[in-house]
Amino acid sequence: MQPALVKHLQAWLITGNKWQRIIATLILCLLIGIIGGALFAFLGPILAIALLMAIAGALIMLRSTQFTFFALIGVICLLPFAALPVPNIGFSPTFLDLVLVVLLFTWLFKVARKKQQRFLSSPLGPPIAAFMVLACASFVIGLSYAPITTNLLRHFVELLLSIFLFFLVLNNVRTRGQLEQIVIALIWAGFAASLIGIVLYFLPHNTTVRLLSTLRIFRYPSGSAVLRFVEDNPELPLRATSTSIDPNVLGGLLVVVTAVTVPQLLARDPLPPFNRGWHWLGINWLAVP
To answer: Where are the domains of the chain?
Structure first.
């Protein structure tokens, strides 16, 4: 019955007359309102909005590995330690884990549908593959000396996924245009991270604590622990953290992003937005101590 209802709604929306389209639109609005109201009632506004955004993002990522790379860059730069707000299942899957898994399966589906005929590698591929095999062998051998735990297995799978990302990039970033889009996404995400860090740095401490504590729903620290000072001494200057928890993590990220950005400031044919005269964007990464 449900598939028949969906087919009728599709037919009314696409090929129906004026009144059929109006009725189908009203039914869809009613269904969306009921589902949205239920989500807001049972989960609360923040979780409901986050869930809807996650569903929309997942659908977009499943359609294109390029969008999945954009999501991966966004998570790395803006929410690197965010975990899914799910009940305790022995470990806390992070957004980074989820995006990597989606990227892997999206590529596998593309291979299964024969949209990619052969596996691409590089001279670095065999050593990296050998390292992964040795890591798996070491992990199996190590099980005879210590019991496996859910958290240990999760970290090992994360390690393999992170290493296999090398092959995912090789097999999905195939054109100059795709590479340029990813570089632009990295530059913008790094700029957003640095801008958030600068804003939080200059805000009153109480406001910064309150804003960063809203991320506790994603297993981030809350309270005064979100503030990081030089040598962990509140009498010394505050260190910028943005949403990276640790200032050293933010610093490492901005070093990488700056290394990608600086050549664009000097290039004869730079990528957008630098070709529009927005060269000042590259200076922002230097503003975070």
So the answer is: 44-172, 176-287
Q: What residue type is assigned to position 52 of the chain?
A: L
CB 218 within 8 A of CB 82: yes
Distance of alpha carbon 273 from alpha carbon 281, whole angstroms = 9
Closest listed residue to residue 287, CA positions, set 214, 196, 194: 194
pLDDT 10s digits, 22-32: 776 777 677 66
Distance between CA 116 and CA 100 in Å, rounded?
A: 19
d(CA 175, CA 183) in angstroms, rounded, equals: 13
pTM of the model: 0.79
Q: Give the residue carrying structure tokens 């630098």.
A: 274
Residues 89-111 have pLDDT tens digits of 667 788 899 899 989 988 888 88
Rounded distance, CA 242 to CA 233, Å? Answer: 19
213 residue type, one letter: S
Lookup: tokens for 186 = 């990295």
Neighbours of 21 (CB within 10 A): 14
169-192 pLDDT, tens per residue?
A: 999 998 989 999 999 999 889 989
